[in-house]
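Consortium newsletter contribution from the modelling node. Members have asked for a concrete example of what our holo predictions look like. Here is one, prepared for the S-adenosyl-L-homocysteine complex that several groups have been discussing at recent meetings.
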Amino acid sequence: MSKTVDEILKQHVLSKEDIVKLLQTNKEERNKIFTHAAKVKADYVGKKVYYRGLIEMSNICSKNCYYCGIRLDNKSAGRYDISDEEILNAVKFAYESNYGSVVLQAGEISSPKFTKRISNLLKQIKELSNNELGITISLGEQPEEVYQEWFESGAHRYLLRIESSNPELYYKLHPKDKKHDYETRLDCLRSLQKVGYQTGTGVMVGLPFQTYEDLANDLFFMRDFDIDMCGMGPYLEHKDTPLYEYKDLLMPIESRFTLTLKMISLLRIIMKDINIAAATALQAIDPIGREKAIKVGANIIMPNVTPGMYRDNYKLYENKPCTDEEAADCTNCMEMRIGITGDDIGYGEWGDSKHYAKRIQQQP
Ligand code: SAH
Ligand code: SF4
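And here is the predicted structure:
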């Protein structure tokens, strides 16, 4: 006889079959998963949310991921590259708002000039915040020396999503060429761990061709890779991208949303002490989507502090929330929003991954 959801959740180790079953639960049953994950979160990382002020510094990208609205070949994306001065102003805003950390994210550019520019920015961020701001970067695949240089310049967390841990699916999402090589992506994740970053990865949920087995394997991938942080969001189709062709294969957007929440909860149950972000893409579906993620296991939120005039053009997907608002508008409602989750806000704290601290201690 097959196990009930309660029986599965009581086990210490979940099998792939268990996870596939949990991912397919109905409304009543999925609430059991959410409640269980909320308890794990409270026990292992506490009912506390940490802020990372997100700066989308440029939408110029040298790659052609099939799903992304700012891919190189999308000629209808208006390109921008925010000046260092404006970036530092946004950083200052995050610092003065007591956010504790910032994230620098951009399309993927690899050049000695870009490397230098980022190194300088990192040093300046440290300087203007008296070394107080924590820095996460998400700047794609780079040679290990570049990761090393940025680490030494002040970044201590890195986000690089594997997007899908199934190589076959990966190549349905990316061109099959040297620039989009699955093995290279894995090597980059290994380099990040080796250099010493708190290493974050994640996947998109609800992709065309993606199966429940794929998603279960994605969770196991993150466990086996021993990641410290995760950012996982629903896939949102963008009409100016090649993957849009397969939009009829997609599950309804509400189902992608719920499935993402289940993935977040299950990851919290499997990897109890990591940091899990409430992805911005959740908010494109539900105005309080990120807050819902916090209630079921996430503990990181990334308020967007990109200057308003640029925000409209960082369109990885359509329906991006708050693109017409200045950062301050968002800040006012942030506190109220987190209030509904019942969690505290870790103002001025880095909120580093507890998993990372343990991983480092255990190293020989
Ligand atoms: N260029 C960097 C960082 C910017 S893209 C990189 O690729 O790592 C950040 C993330 O946005 C990607 O990892 C991807 O998972 C997500 N993303 C891109 N297009 C998306 C879409 N259409 N729907 C949902 N998420 C998307
Ligand atoms: Fe560029 Fe990142 Fe978008 Fe890929 S996902 S096209 S690397 S910005």
